[in-house]
């Protein structure tokens, strides 16, 4: 079997404007990235979507507050791994302890070609 090569890199952003839910922002970022891509290449080449290696990187200010398993479960195809790193943006609300959370997502798809 050949070494898997990256064939797709898709980016997305998501937010949770009230409640400070980092997982919700991360899920929205992943969905944003998914809605920018299509698997037509896989169909054209006759590749089973289950063969995809999907590497998800999420950037948020509080990585420990993202439920990585929920993010992984939200991907419809492939063998998914999730890594959560410090990134994204928290926008404080001066009158409350209720930041707007902004997450970034990068989805890389590798195929053995």
TrEMBL record:
Family matches, as Pfam families:
Lin0512_fam
Q: Which UniProt keywords apply?
A: GTP-binding, Nucleotide-binding
InterPro entries cross-referenced by the UniProt entry: CHP02058, Tubulin/FtsZ-like_C
Work out whether the entry's keyword set contains DNA-binding.
no
Q: Could you state a single Gene Ontology molecular function term?
A: GTP binding
Q: What is this protein called?
A: Uncharacterized protein
Which organism encodes this protein? Roseicella frigidaeris
């Amino acid at each position: 079997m050949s070494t898997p090569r990256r064939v797709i890199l898709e980016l997305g952003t998501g937010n949770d404007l009230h409640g400070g839910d980092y997982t919700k922002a991360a899920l929205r970022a992943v969905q944003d990235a998914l809605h920018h891509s299509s698997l037509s290449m896989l169909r054209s080449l006759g590749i089973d979507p289950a063969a995809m290696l999907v590497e998800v990187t999420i950037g948020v200010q509080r990585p420990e507050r993202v439920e990585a398993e929920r993010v992984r479960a939200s991907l419809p195809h492939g063998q998914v791994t999730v890594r959560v790193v410090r990134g994204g943006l928290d926008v404080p609300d001066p009158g409350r302890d209720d930041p707007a959370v902004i997450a970034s997502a990068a989805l890389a798809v590798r195929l053995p070609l």
